[in-house]
Structure formats: structure tokens, C-alpha cells
């Protein structure tokens, strides 16, 4: 048995802000993927994944039936015969490893599921997002449901606000463009839950809330608009501002050894770094007007280009 593939995702803009109704833009990243599988001789990783699926199945059996009904019997049978999630998506890297798993389980076991082929009204997208948020909270404590939604639909998703999301098109990549979005491997695994709780703790302070609204969300929204319009000049201006705001106010989410590198990018304009997902490790997202310059400035690190301007 081998299920369909579900891809990783990259939240280009909106990390943390979407909790407080900023815009967001999430795109599928086909470099990594995962699928449900069974093997006669499972590896150690497969056995570990199977154990996680046992716990997840237990959790899904108690999920609100008004929201979603699963064929729990079929799921329990498959898990008891060794089903696991075979994935190349790195865990704790902010590219949606649990999201792809949630999408795969929903696709195979949900009854009366909303399929990718039907007319995806805003209402259906919000229903899917609510189901996925409930499912994924098993892994993170609190989830927006966005990662699994992206993985399930394999389409770019524009978040206008928590109650207003839509599948969207993004400008075609320019294969020989100098400008690029890239992933920088921090070499450290990030944990989502502790980062989110630091953020929630900060939200209790009025100064932090004001900064979020007047700076972070303002620049995030502008970046999303610029990206979708293909206004690259304005995009880099706003990404630079966003990078500054994150360095000044989200320090705990940036691994300490990257603080200087982050600052250097802002000062030289060779690249601008931002959080990829909740931060704390995993990938860091970079934007550069000139990928050659960025590669040179970051030559000690592993970069993966995900989009060319």
C-alpha cells in the first residue's frame, strides 16, 4: 500500500501575525513530501511513526463528530497492521511535516470529505481549515490549520484574515531572475509549542501588541500585496522593514548564532532574513535581490532557492 503524496509548504508571510488577523501567503513546496505506507519489514523510523499514529488515532476517535467523522475502524486496522507516514519533510523545520500527515489521514479516512476537485467556496475552505486546526492541535497544542490545508490542496493560499481565506495564483517565476526567496538551514531543530507560548506571553504587554499591529502586521500585509502584484522593488523595501521588526522584537525565535547574520543582511542589503514558521530553529527564510551576492555572503551555510523573481 502506498497513499498519494502530500507536499511540504512554506508560509512566505504571516507567521505569528495570522494569529492576530494579519494577511498571510502560503505556498506548496514540492521539494519535500510524505505518504502513508505499509512495509513487510518496517525500519526503526517507520515503527516510531506507527507509534505516533497509534496515539494520533486515539486522539481522532474523540474529535467532535459535528466537525468531522472518520472511519476510525479502518484507521485502527491499518495502524495495527503497521501503517506509517513515510516522509522526506524535515520535522521541526517550519515546512509543515505534521501538516502533510494530517492532510494524508483526512484524505484517506474522513467520511463525506471535501475534495480538491469540487468548487472550493470560502465556506468550504474555512470548514477544512477548522477541521485541520482541530486535527493538527494534537501535534502543536494550537494550530491555525493552514499547513494541512496547503498540503491537502497543493495550491497557494492567501489569508486575508482568519475568516477570509482563498486559493490564489502567484506570479510566474522568472527562471533566470537574480532575485530569489531561499531557505537557510539553521542546523537546529525548532519546537513550535514553546515559541508560540513565548509569543502568547508577550501578547499580554500593551507595547508588544501595539508593535504587532502598527509595525509587524503593517509590513506583513504590504509584503503580501507586493508579492501578489509582482512589485519587487516595494517587496524588498517592506521585507527589509519586516526583517528589522523581527530582529528587534522576536529575538527569542531567532537562534542566537544568527542574530549577527540577520543584522548584517539588513545593513548590506545583500539579503533579508525572516522567520519560517514559528522559528526557534529549522529553516530561516531569506529574500534577496541578487542570489549570487546572498550565496557569497552566506557561503558557510546551506541555501535552497524556492522561488526566483
UniProtKB/TrEMBL annotation:
Protein name in the entry: Mevalonate kinase
InterPro entries cross-referenced by the UniProt entry: GHMP_kinase_C_sf (IPR036554), GHMP_kinase_N_dom (IPR006204), HddA/FKP (IPR001174), Ribosomal_Su5_D2-typ_SF (IPR020568), Ribsml_uS5_D2-typ_fold_subgr (IPR014721)
Pfam families linked to this entry: GHMP_kinases_N
Keywords, alphabetical: ATP-binding, Kinase, Nucleotide-binding, Transferase
Lineage of the species this protein comes from: Bacteria, Pseudomonadati, Bacteroidota, Flavobacteriia, Flavobacteriales
GO molecular function annotation: ATP binding; kinase activity
Domain (GHMP kinase N-terminal) ranges: 82-147
Top-level taxon: Bacteria
Membrane-crossing residue ranges in chain numbering: none
Amino acid at each position: 500500500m502506498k497513499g498519494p503524496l502530500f507536499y511540504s509548504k512554506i508560509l512566505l508571510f504571516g507567521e505569528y501575525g495570522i494569529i492576530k488577523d494579519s494577511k498571510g501567503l502560503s505556498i506548496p513546496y514540492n521539494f519535500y513530501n510524505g505518504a502513508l505506507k505499509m512495509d513487510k519489514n518496517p525500519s526503526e523510523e517507520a515503527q516510531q511513526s506507527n507509534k505516533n499514529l497509534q496515539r494520533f488515532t486515539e486522539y481522532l476517535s474523540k474529535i467532535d463528530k459535528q466537525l468531522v467523522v472518520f472511519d476510525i475502524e479502518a484507521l485502527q486496522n491499518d495502524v495495527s497492521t503497521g501503517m506509517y507516514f513515510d516522509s522526506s519533510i524535515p520535522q521541526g523545520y517550519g515546512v509543515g511535516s505534521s501538516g502533510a500527515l494530517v492532510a494524508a489521514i483526512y484524505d484517506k479516512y474522513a467520511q463525506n470529505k471535501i475534495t480538491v476537485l469540487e468548487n472550493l467556496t470560502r465556506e468550504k475552505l474555512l470548514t477544512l481549515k477548522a477541521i485541520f486546526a482541530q486535527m493538527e492541535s494534537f501535534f502543536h497544542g494550537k494550530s491555525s490549520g493552514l499547513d494541512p490545508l496547503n498540503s491537502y490542496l497543493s495550491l497557494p493560499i492567501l489569508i486575508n484574515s482568519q475568516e477570509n481565506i482563498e486559493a490564489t495564483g502567484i506570479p510566474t517565476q522568472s527562471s533566470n531572475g537574480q532575485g530569489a526567496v531561499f531557505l537557510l538551514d539553521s542546523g537546529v531543530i525548532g519546537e513550535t509549542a514553546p515559541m508560540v507560548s513565548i509569543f502568547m506571553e508577550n501578547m499580554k504587554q500593551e507595547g508588544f501588541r501595539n508593535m504587532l499591529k502598527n509595525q509587524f502586521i503593517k509590513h506583513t500585509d504590504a509584503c503580501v500585496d507586493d508579492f501578489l502584484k509582482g512589485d519587487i522593488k516595494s517587496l524588498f523595501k517592506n521585507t527589509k522593514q519586516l526583517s528589522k521588526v523581527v530582529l528587534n522584537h522576536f529575538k527569542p525565535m531567532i537562534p542566537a548564532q544568527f542574530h549577527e547574520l540577520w543584522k548584517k543582511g539588513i545593513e548590506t542589503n545583500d539579503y533579508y532574513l525572516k522567520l519560517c514558521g514559528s522559528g526557534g530553529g529549522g529553516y530561516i527564510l531569506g529574500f534577496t535581490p541578487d542570489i549570487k551576492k546572498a550565496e557569497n555572503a552566506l557561503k558557510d551555510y546551506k541555501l535552497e532557492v524556492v522561488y526566483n523573481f
